[in-house]
Each structure stands twice: as C-alpha cells, then as structure tokens.
C-alpha cells in the first residue's frame, strides 16, 4: 500500500478516525501531520490522544515545542515550527525511539532528524465540513497500520 485516502464529513468523524488510529499505535511509532491552518490537525490530534488513552485535554503546543501526555503509552505532541532554519536537536531520537507515540507538526523543519519509518498524514479541506485525509506509510509497520485503519 502506497497511500490510503479517507474522507470525513464532520469534525467528529475526523476525531473518530484518529481515535481508531490511536488505538492501533504502539511505543516508538512516529506520525507526521500536515495541513493548512483550519484543516483539522488539532481535531485529529485530540482524537488520536483519546485512542491512546490520554485523559487530559490536548491543545496545540504553540509555545512549547514538545508536550507530553500520559496515556496507555506516553504521547508526545511536537510542533517544531520554530525550528525552521535551526539544527537544534531537542533529543528527538529519545522521543522517536522511546516508550511513547510521537506526533510531529511542521515535520519538514526537522526532516533530517526524522526516523525512516513513519506515517505521514496530510489533511486537506475539501468543503466546510469535509476533509480528505491522505495516509502515507513509510515502512512495513505503518503499511500494516494503514490496512487495519482501512477496515
Ligand atoms: P488545524 O489544527 O489544522 O489548524 P483545527 O483542528 O484547529 O485545525 O480546526 C479545524 C476546524 O475545522 C475546526 O473548527 C473544525 O470544527 C472544523 N471542521 C469542519 N469539518 C471538519 C472535518 N471534517 N474534520 C476536521 N475539522 C473540521
Ligand atoms: Mg492546530
């Protein structure tokens, strides 16, 4: 599978899809999340966190680059926007290879520090209430995850 494209017709549907994905994830999984402002990245991330068993409210980590939440496994939410043109390394490998699941927003700014195996999710607005979610898996593990998600 090269790509999985799914559509949703409401924010709730996007959150439910993300929750389903969250339930399929395990320690060491890394997801990159793309989409314009208002596409639904935060909506998606909140659903994902729910699927990981996070009870706390998840918001965008605009002022902190990395936010950590307790769940079934730890959940790390990163927004590396402020690392554009910076080679600062905040110990990314320890997060990526660690005990938790990581979601990275603006991952292109740390492209050279990302693991080889990851799942990219691109959310595109197709109407007021409709979104297209394109899942691009890199590595066998995420191909399997996408097959499960498609069911
Ligand atoms: P981002 O984090 O990408 O800027 P948000 O998740 O904060 O986006 O905002 C998405 C907005 O779009 C919310 O106001 C949400 O209610 C709305 N929306 C409408 N339809 C959908 C949908 N199908 N999926 C996700 N969000 C949707
Ligand atoms: Mg957001």
TrEMBL record:
Report the superkingdom from the record: Bacteria
Q: Tell me the compartments it is located in.
A: Cytoplasm
Gene symbol here is: tsaE
Name of protein:
tRNA threonylcarbamoyladenosine biosynthesis protein TsaE
Keywords, A to Z, come to: ATP-binding, Cytoplasm, Magnesium, Metal-binding, Nucleotide-binding, tRNA processing
Return the InterPro entries for the record: P-loop_NTPase, T6A_TsaE
Stated family: Belongs to the TsaE family.
